[in-house]
Write a structure and sequence with these properties.
Distance between the termini: 94 Å
Largest sheet: 4 strands, mixed
Number of strands: 19
Shape: flat
Number of helices: 4
CATH class of one domain: Mainly Beta
CATH topology of one domain: Immunoglobulin-like
Structural class: alpha+beta
Strand order of the largest sheet: 2-9-8-5
Helix content: 25-40%
Strand content: 25-35%
Radius of gyration: 59 Å
């Protein structure tokens, strides 16, 4: 059933596509041809000899054309705009009489020199000049932007490796350490044409440079200076080279880590001990509760047995009382009664012997007497 429905849907789609193809192939060309074909030329006349009074041509309204405002797009920020590298400024603009929903798009001629976001904030990236362009529909507005070259006000040597606290003027390394040095220019974005590195004592270390970076290799115990020259700016640091064993600073760091680990281990042990004690007390409580439940069950069973024994005793006494009652009914007092005695192997029957005092009712025989 589902397959049949699917086949029907496919057949409907195919028929629909065929109909569209026929319309596009035959009907539309004929319609276009009819629209483009001029009216026939009458003999002795020109192509304009036909009556156009039946054409539906709307009247031309000059006032309406004059009152329709034209869209206006312009950048109101005065130019040319001069910025420094890294500077950010918003670009002001006017956008009037555009159709509803028209979007404003921003761009720059060279994004490497200056870039602008959808919010209209312009960011200067590198020295040079470029245009800021605003587009809305078919209209376009532009503004010339010139980015100045920032002057470097300072330069600092930065150690990429975490040997010590980066930013100091002296550092301590071990023999065999390989340290990467980087030049940081201040302010950020300022341009420096050339960088050069110098090593004060080449007997204890080697220095290979590559523009803004250099590689320092400690070879012997001792002390040396590394100097960076960036244009007219310089910066120097002192590097103390010690034996490759663990230094005092590193040892102190290790000691702090060991102390932290020991404290954590003690805390974990205390927590585990407390949890073990709690589990032990919980198990003891559960065992005591189980013992109380067993004792209570035993007491209930004992009371149940006692009730059963009491019920049996009462039933037996009730049966004996009924037997006595039946005996007394059959043998009323004052009449002769026959008494059966069981003594060894002799059984006799006779009259009851007179007794002194009030006569007690004779107990009926039971199975215990026969035993």
């Amino acid at each position: 059933m589902r397959r049949t429905k699917k086949q029907k849907h496919i057949l409907i789609v195919i028929v629909f596509i065929i109909v569209i193809a026929v319309v596009v192939t035959y009907v539309l060309p004929l319609t276009v041809l009819a629209e483009e074909t001029p009216p026939p030329v009458q003999p002795g006349g020109t192509d304009w000899d036909y009556d156009d009074s039946t054409l539906d041509i709307p009247p031309f309204d000059e006032e309406e054309e004059e009152d329709t405002p034209l869209p206006v797009l312009k950048i109101t920020t005065s130019g040319p705009l001069r910025l420094d590298v890294g500077q950010q400024v918003p670009i002001a603009y006017e956008m009037n009489d555009f159709p509803e929903g028209t979007l404003l798009e921003w761009s720059t001629g060279n994004p490497e020199i200056a870039a602008i976001g959808a919010d209209g904030i312009l960011v200067a990236r590198a020295p040079g000049s470029t245009d800021v362009i605003a587009r809305a529909g078919d209209m376009r507005a532009s503004l010339l932007v010139e980015v100045n070259n920032l002057r470097a006000s300072g330069v600092v040597i930065v150690l990429d490796e975490d040997v010590s606290k980066t930013g100091l003027n002296s550092y301590e390394v071990k023999v065999g350490d390989v340290i990467r040095l980087t030049a940081k220019v201040e302010p950020e974005g300022a341009k420096v044409d050339k960088f050069s590195w110098m090593l004060g004592n080449d007997r204890v270390a080697t220095l290979s440079q590559n523009g803004k970076t250099a590689e320092f290799v400690a070879t012997e115990v001792g002390q040396t200076q590394v100097t960076l020259v960036a244009g007219k700016l310089t910066h120097s640091i002192t590097i103390e080279i010690i034996e490759s064993g663990v230094g005092l600073d590193t040892l102190w760091v290790y000691i702090k880590y060991v102390v932290i680990i020991v404290i954590a281990a003690v805390v974990i042990a205390i927590v585990l001990s407390v949890m073990a004690q709690q589990r032990k007390r919980e198990k003891a409580r559960q065992r005591a509760a189980a013992k109380r439940r067993r004792e209570e069950a035993a007491r209930r069973a004992q009371r149940e047995r006692e009730r059963e024994e009491e019920a049996e005793r009462r039933a037996r006494e009730a049966a004996e009382a009924r037997q006595r009652e039946m005996w007394e009914r059959r043998h009323p007092q004052g009449e002769e009664r026959t008494t059966m005695r069981v003594s060894g192997a002799v059984v006799g029957a006779g009259l009851a012997e007179p007794r002194e005092g009030p006569e007690e009712p004779e107990r009926p025989l039971t199975l215990d007497d026969l035993d």
